[in-house]
Amino acid sequence: MNCAVLLVLTVWFGSQCGGNALSSSCPAPPSEWCSSMDTAIQCGVLKHCLLSNVTRSHQTENAVEVGLYYESLCPGCRLFLAEMLFPTWLLLNEIMSVSLVPYGNAKETPDGQKYVYECQHGEQECLGNMIETCLLNMTRMAFPIIFCMESSTDVIKSAQSCAALYSPQLNWDKVMGCVKGDVGNQLMHQNALMTEALNPPHNYVPWITINGAHTEDLQDKAMTSLFTLVCSMYKGTKPAACGGPQKTSYKTYCHNK
Ligand SMILES: *[C@@H]1O[C@H](CO)[C@@H](O)[C@H](O)[C@H]1NC(C)=O
Ligand SMILES: *[C@@H]1O[C@H](CO)[C@@H](O)[C@H](O)[C@H]1NC(C)=O
User: Fold this and answer.
1) Which are the contacts of 204, defined by CB distance < 8 A and separation ≥ 6?
2) How far apart are CA 40 and CA 30, in angstroms?
3) What confidence score (pLDDT) does residue 26 get?
4) 39-72: per-residue pLDDT in tens?
5) Looking at residue 198, what DSSP letter applies?
6) Atom 14 (ligand 2): residue with closest C-alpha?
7) Rounded to the nearest whole angstrom, what is the distance from the C-alpha of residue 53 to the centroid of ligand 1?
8) Is 201 exposed, middle or buried, given 0-12, 13-18 or 19+ CB atoms closer than 10 A?
């Protein structure tokens, strides 16, 4: 995921002074640019792919883990995911990991080997939760896709085109197979178990955990400025985005003539 995000930024920077970011021989969509050395070279993004691969391998150890327990149609969840969590992650993905658990205030009832789910905002929400759960299981691009869905007018109707945008090689029929089948049902049960295991138990959503812990103070800080919270909780050397040492000077300008 880091790659694609970085690459989106690359395209943006590349276009700033009329530069040409994309070589015409680039054979792959942005989500695959870092998938191999060859593609990276053909698309003119090798340096960025190598860099982001390096940052990724540095990441895991002290990364601040942000957990979001939510449900797909809850307005507060959508707002937090789209306007706080995702933008923060774009800037700080080197030092934070995100874990999404779509379930929230749903209820499950065992029915033979399977479970029946009932959702706070009705059937459509159960469907949204299930699509997102399957995406999380099926593609590394799940977070951008879920961001795209949650920030669209219609979470469900946008799902397929959001997936096509960020993960063109993902087979939508397979996603729906998961959504309607036993795999999705079992994956949702895992979400139910994780949500029910929260300590303290959640009494609203979005419910946020930081490194697995939830306190009123952490929730409050996360809702106010997740960016500040993650920067302040990160134990390693602060990245440039947090005001740490900068690898490059950002002060370059395109002057008018
Ligand atoms: C980045 O890492 C992935 C997975 O480890 C690897 O397959 C890919 O070749 C790497 N890309 C580059 C450009 O080194
Ligand atoms: C997806 O779900 C399957 C079946 O439950 C599980 O074995 C697998 O580890 C999951 N993969 C990911 C990436 O979550």
Assistant:
1) none
2) 10
3) 85
4) 888 888 887 887 776 656 555 578 999 999 999 9
5) -
6) 137
7) 6
8) exposed
Output the pLDDT for position 15. 38
CA of 143 from ligand 1 middle (Å) equals 20
CA 92 to CA 55: how far, in whole Å? 11
Provide the pLDDT for residue 57.
52
Total-model pTM: 0.79
Can you name the CATH fold of 64-234?
Answer: Glutaredoxin (3.40.30)
Measure the CA dihedral 207/91/141/208, to 10°.
-10
Annotated domain spans of the chain: 3-59, 64-234
Mutational test site, ligand 2, from 98, 100, 137, max ligand atoms within 8 Å of CB: 137
| Cα(75)–Cα(96) distance, integer angstroms | 24
Task: Mark the ranges of the chain whose per-residue pLDDT is less than 50.
Answer: 1-23
How far, in Å, is the centroid of ligand 1 from the Cα of 76?
37
Residue 130, ligand 1, Cβ within 6 A? no
